[in-house]
Structures are given as C-alpha cells and as structure tokens.
Amino acid sequence: MIILLFSNRDLKKLIIPLIIEQVLALTIGIFDTMMVSQCGQSAVSGVSIVDGLNVLIINIFSALATGGAVVCSQYIGKKDEEMACHSAKQLLFTILGLSLVIMVLCMIFNGNLLNLIFGHIESDVMAYARTYFFFSALSYPFIGLFNGGAALFRSMGNSKVAMTNSFYMNIGNIVLNYLFIFILNMSVKGAAIATLLSRMFCSFIILYMLLNKEHIVHIDTYLKYKFDFSTVKRILKIGIPNGLENGMFQMGKILVQRLVSTFGTAAIAAHAVAFSLTSIAVVPGMALGLAILTVVGQCIGANDYQQAKYYTKKLMIIAYLSTIVAAGILLVGVRYILRFYALPQDTANLAVSMVSLHCVFDFFVWPMAFSFPNALRAANDATFTMIVSTFSMWTFRFALSYVFALYLHMGVIGVWWAMIVDWIFRSICFMIRYKSNKWMNRTLV
User: Fold this and answer.
1) 265 and 122 in contact (C-beta within 8 Å)?
2) Secondary structure of 277-299 in the HEC alphabet?
3) What is the pTM of this model?
4) Which of 16-25, 72-81, 204-213 tops mean pLDDT?
5) What is the pLDDT of residue 30?
6) pLDDT at 324
7) Residue 277, C-beta contacts closer than 8 angstroms, at least 6 positions apart
8) What is the dihedral sign for C-alpha 166, 374, 153, 227?
9) Cα maximum dimension of the chain
10) Whether 76 contacts 260, CB under 8 Å
C-alpha cells in the first residue's frame, strides 16, 4: 500500500491560505490603482508604467525564492533538515545582496531608465512615474526578503504564515493610502510611501518568525553568515532559468506596454485597470502553481515520481475548477467593479473588452500555461520551461502584438489577442514535455 505524502487535509491547509495570500497580494495593486485613479488618468498611467518595471524586478526575487523553495522542498522530502535550514539562510542573504544592488541602480538611474524603456510620454505622466519609481525602489530589499521568507514557509507546507503577513501588509497599505492620498493630499507619492512602509513591516515580521526553531526550516541567527557557493549554485540552478524566464516575460510585457502607450492615455489607463482586474481571475491558478512547487518538490526529494504525477494531476484539476469559478465571477461582475474607478465611459468600455477576452481564455488555457510548468520546475527541469517561455514571449506576445495592433489595425485589443496566442503555444509545449517523461530523474539535491 502506497503511503501518500500529502493527505487531502494537508492539501487544504496548503492551498486555501495560498489562495487567500494571492488575493491579498493582488489587492495591494488594485487598491493602489483604484485610489490613485481619484487623482486622474495621468496618475493612473504613471503608476501603471512603473508597476510593469516593479513586477519585472520583483519577479527576479521571486525566481530566487522559487529556487530556494525547490531546494528546501527536496531536502525536506529527503529528510535532511540541517541542509534545508542551511539552504534557507543562503537564499535570504543572496536575495538581500541582489536587492540592495538593484535598489541603488534604480534610484540613481531613475529617469534614465524610464526614458530608455518608454521613450517620450506625456510630461505629467512621466513626473508621476519618476516619483513612484523612486519610492518603489526603496522597498525592493523588503519585498525581496518577504518573498524569500514566504517561499521558505511554503516549502514546509505552511502557507498560513505568508497569508497572515499579506493580510497585515494589505491593511497597512490601505490605511496608509487613505492617509497619504486623501488626507495629506500626497497623490502618487503617498501611494508609493504607503506600499514601502507596509512592505518593511511585513518583511521584519516574517524574518523574525523564521528564527523559531520549532519550524522544520529555520534560521539560527542573522548576525553570522558564511557564503556557500555549492548551496547557492543549487538555488541558482532553478533561480537563474526561472529568473531569466520571468525577466524576459516581464520585459516583453513592458515593451508591449510601450506599444500600448502610443495609443494614448485612455488606452494606457484601460490596459492598466484591465490587467489589474484580470489578476483576480488567475489567483487560484497562481496559488495552485505555488502548491505544485511544494508538493511535487517533496515528492521528487523522496524519489517518488508516481506520487509526483498523481499530485500534479490532482492539483491541476483543482486549478482548472477554481479558475473557472473566479474568471466566471469576474466576467459577470466586471462592469459593476469598474464603477469604483474614476474612468471616462469610453475607457471603461475598452477595459471591459480586455477583461472579457482574458476571462474566456482563462477557462481553457491559463492554468496549463502558467500553473502546470511548476511541476517541471519542481523536478529541476526549469531550463526547458525557460526556453519555451522566452521563445513564446518574444515570438507571439511581443512580435505578434505589433502585427495585430499596427498591421491588422486591431489597436490595443490586438495586444491582448497576441497574449492569448502566447498562452496556447506554452500549454502545448509543456504538455508534450510532461508526456515524454524527460523531466524525470533530475533531482537537485
């Protein structure tokens, strides 16, 4: 009789907090956009431009965190708690060093980077973007450490800690947003400072919780650290391909956003609001993707590929069912939600078209394109997912956006159709790889 590594109760304890955490994490962006929208379309456009860069940079930290989570999950599956703790410490200090370097570079080259990437945009939009980018950069070390700590707790199957901290981050962000934007009239600057302070608080909390030696993965002390290249190399073996994949993906999105900016402020605002709202529809898929990393990672560490396949199938079924529910609710309620945004009617109508297109294809494609490849990453097949995702990003989402938007005269909606083609191609490639079994026997530890 096969002893399952995760009972249904274990999966519930992992998945439900993950879904709540992802909702809370996305709510920060939604409330920022909603509150800043009261300051006008230029403010929304400036924030949305920087959010693209922020996501790119934060995904670098998330990629490292993913590498650390896979390594720790495999050590836990292997019953080697000492190396799991050692790997955790190496992960946190690696993220800290990298985030400090990126923070300094972004603060020094603030305006230069924005001009280089987005070119000539309206002066008031650029002014808002520069302000938001400066204060966002200050928060990079804190969000990096928070992501690393959250990933470590997930590797233990404990997603409740990250969920609780995300809740506090959101409450703090909303309260501070109200204070800085509406009472102190600090506009975009206020939104950025609110996010900075809430990230600082939660990063300190999660780092403190990792000192608790009752956790399987814990940190002995932050006062002593010795760099271990071999352990960092294992983390980077997942983190670098995943980081390159995420980086290319976000860079492509930024360059596509540059195309969107040529269609005017209304298109930028509609695009920003639609992307913010469609994130709600894919929350279950994002959460299940994180669950797959933990569950399949521990199965691989235990050298049990049959259970890895069993849980991949089970979690993907849950991902599809929950995504259908979330996307369906958003599809029905999008017009009501948009009433909370101070958008002109034509801008709101454009946003509805974008959200509707996204939701329809969420039903069929999104989980396979973005949740499913985490099973391959957990099995140390991250290089394959990187190659597929990078090729698909530049060939379809980027190049095809220009074809659809400019040459076929589809406008900004063409950008969204190109994105759908990207999803379909990824899904086909990942399924073929999984069926071939070439992802097996690639243990990392």
Assistant:
1) yes
2) HHHHHCHHHHHHHHHHHHHHHHH
3) 0.78
4) 204-213
5) 66
6) 95
7) 30, 330, 334, 337, 338, 351, 355
8) negative
9) 68
10) no
Task: Please write down the long-range contacts of 418-423, taking CB distance under 8 Å and 24 or more positions apart.
Answer: 418/256, 420/357, 420/361, 420/365, 421/396, 421/397, 422/369, 422/392, 422/393, 422/396, 422/397, 423/361, 423/365, 423/366, 423/369, 423/370
The confidence score (pLDDT) of residue 119 equals 67
Residue 433, token pair as written in the block: 């790889």
For residues 77 and 66, give the distance between their C-alpha atoms in angstroms, rounded to a whole number.
16
| pLDDT, mean of residues 64-71 | 87
Residues in the chain: 445
State CA 178 to chain mean position distance: 25
The phi, psi pair for 442, rounded to 5°, reads -125, 40
Residue 3 has pLDDT above 80, yes or no: no
* pLDDT exceeds 70 at position 445: no
What is the structure's pLDDT at 24? 78
Q: What is the pLDDT of residues 406-442, one digit of tens each?
A: 898 888 899 999 999 999 999 999 999 999 988 887 6
Two tokens at 165? 């901290």
Report the Cα 307 to chain-centroid distance in Å.
Answer: 27
Note the pLDDT of residue 429: 96
Q: What is the pLDDT of residues 134-188, one digit of tens each?
A: 988 999 999 999 999 999 998 888 888 888 888 888 888 888 988 988 888 888 8
The set of long-range contacts for 92-96, using a CB threshold of 8 Å and a minimum separation of 24, is 92/145, 92/148, 92/149, 92/152, 92/207, 92/210, 92/219, 93/225, 93/227, 94/64, 94/232, 94/235, 95/61, 95/64, 95/65, 95/144, 95/145, 95/147, 95/148, 96/141, 96/144, 96/145
CA triple 340-342-345, angle to 5 deg = 100
Residues 266-287: what's their mean pLDDT?
86
What's the CA gap between 85 and 91, in Å, rounded?
A: 10
Q: How far apart are CA 252 and CA 95, in angstroms?
A: 24
DSSP sequence for 6-75 = S-HHHHHHHHHHHHHHHHHHHHHHHHHHHHHGGG-HHHHHHHHHHHHHHHHHHHHHHHHHHHHHHHHHHH
215 contact partners, CB below 8 Å, separation of at least 6: 153, 156, 158, 209
Tell me the one-letter amino acid at 222. Answer: Y
List, in order, residues 6 or more apart from 229 with CB less than 8 Å away: none
Provide the H-helix boundaries in 78-139.
Answer: 81-108, 110-118, 123-138
How big is the CA angle at 392 (ends 389 and 396), to the nearest 5 degrees? 150
Rama region for 441: left / alpha / beta (φ>0; ψ in -120 to 50; rest): left
pLDDT at 120: 67
Q: Which two tokens stand for residue 388?
A: 């597929």
